[in-house]
Write a sequence for this structure.
């Protein structure tokens, strides 16, 4: 029950973060989540930054490039989108470290099935990703050029996408074969 | 050539994957690494390839201790990566170039050699994949991908070839071809498998890892294959209630 209550509060929190357009509120939210994390805060910060830093940088730079030319840059908007993404990401990492999501979703067997399948896929694809990184390290004799790195990442991305699609098809077939869709119409 | 002394390995916050393993490899040894799934075969091969580092103990390649620090020396890393190559269990992990030709040339190009085309065509011909050189590697069969990866590794003319379950995705004909091909190579090979029926074809010497991640045998393969208790202990053979013994052969 505790996990379910936490999940409900988290969903409410997400609604607040996405509907209140106030930089001070979002800034306070980021600080509050970090304070709540206690000793886990540095690890949380590192993981969250690793997740959104490059994406946010790309979006921010693209926005600045397009608006600086026209002279209508809104710095408060830049702060708003960056703080909102930071607050959402920190909150997501915080909640997943505090609750057992399977137990929180136990009221719906269908959601539990979906979460379990998604989790198993994450584990499988993460293993593939780690293997491909190790394979590149193993085959690298010296510094690689941008072209090689680009080809590797593009190749791995395409492979993971294809593998994800193939696995999804197979999992769906296996679920159908075991009568899942007959019981969960 | 290779010395492993009291090596243990565990991932951070994880259980042990290898416990107190000590080994020696001489030039041109042909070693079969046996053990069930999860016994630590892949981890041991990755340590020998300098992808993972022992949490305890020492790994030496030609008297040089292999650590993250020593592999930061660019000249040494280049020499080591050229001499010790690793065929991953899933060839898909290794393929990322737009064509088979580029895939084979990837390592050779990094060496800056003048005869890149000759090497690529030479190894492609030797492996029977010359007709695939301009094709993307992603759409090939499992056996063809395996050959592309082997050509890419062998074009560097390595001293040590590490192979992780190389027959796991091959049909019987391709398996037969691979056994013959490896038998003709003049390099040190360390091949992991849990297929006992194939082991005798892949080498003369064997290392056996137990399910609790210890090295429980290092010696002649023929001797190990005759030791029923040893094979039962390593879970490479099982007994039925009616007291027959079977060799596992999952491939």
């Amino acid at each position: 029950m505790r996990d379910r209550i936490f999940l409900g509060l988290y969903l409410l929190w997400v609604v607040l973060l996405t509907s209140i357009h106030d930089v001070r509120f979002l800034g306070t939210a980021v600080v509050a989540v970090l304070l709540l994390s206690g000793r886990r805060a540095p690890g949380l910060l590192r993981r969250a930054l690793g997740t959104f830093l490059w994406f946010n940088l790309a979006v921010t730079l693209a926005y600045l490039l397009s608006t600086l030319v026209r002279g209508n840059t809104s710095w408060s908007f830049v702060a708003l989108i960056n703080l909102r993404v930071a607050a959402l990401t920190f909150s997501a990492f915080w909640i997943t470290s505090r609750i057992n999501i399977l137990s929180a979703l136990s009221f719906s067997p269908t959601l539990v099935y979906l979460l379990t399948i998604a989790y198993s896929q994450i584990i499988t694809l993460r293993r593939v990703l780690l293997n491909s990184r190790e394979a590149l390290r193993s085959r690298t004799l010296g510094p690689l050029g941008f072209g090689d790195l680009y080809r590797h990442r593009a190749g791995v991305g395409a492979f993971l996408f294809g593998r994800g699609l193939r696995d999804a098809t197979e999992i769906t077939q296996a679920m159908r074969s075991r009568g899942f869709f007959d019981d969960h119409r | 050539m290779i010395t492993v002394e009291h090596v243990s390995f565990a991932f951070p916050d994880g259980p042990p994957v290898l416990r107190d393993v000590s080994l020696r490899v001489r030039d041109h040894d042909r070693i079969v690494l046996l053990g069930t799934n999860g016994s630590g075969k892949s981890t041991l091969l990755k340590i020998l390839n300098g992808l993972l580092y022992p949490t305890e103990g020492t790994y030496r390649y030609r008297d040089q201790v292999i650590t993250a620090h020593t592999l930061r020396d660019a000249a040494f890393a280049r020499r080591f990566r050229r001499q010790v190559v690793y065929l991953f269990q899933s060839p898909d992990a290794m393929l990322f170039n737009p064509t088979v030709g580029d895939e084979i040339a990837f390592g050779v190009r990094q060496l800056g050699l003048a005869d890149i085309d000759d090497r690529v065509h030479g190894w492609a011909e030797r492996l029977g994949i010359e007709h695939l050189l301009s094709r993307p590697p992603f759409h090939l069969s499992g056996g063809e991908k395996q050959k592309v990866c082997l050509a890419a590794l062998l074009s560097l003319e390595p001293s040590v070839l590490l192979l992780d379950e190389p027959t796991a995705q091959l049909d019987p004909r391709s398996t037969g071809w691979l056994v013959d091909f490896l038998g003709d190579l003049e390099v040190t090979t360390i091949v992991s498998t849990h297929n006992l029926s194939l082991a005798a074809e892949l080498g003369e010497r064997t290392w056996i890892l137990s399910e609790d991640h210890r090295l429980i045998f290092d010696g002649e393969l023929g001797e190990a294959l005759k030791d029923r208790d040893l094979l039962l202990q390593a879970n490479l053979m099982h007994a039925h209630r009616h007291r027959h013994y079977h060799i596992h052969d999952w491939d």
User: Anything to note?
Assistant: The CA atoms of residues 56 and 62 of chain A lie 10 Å apart.
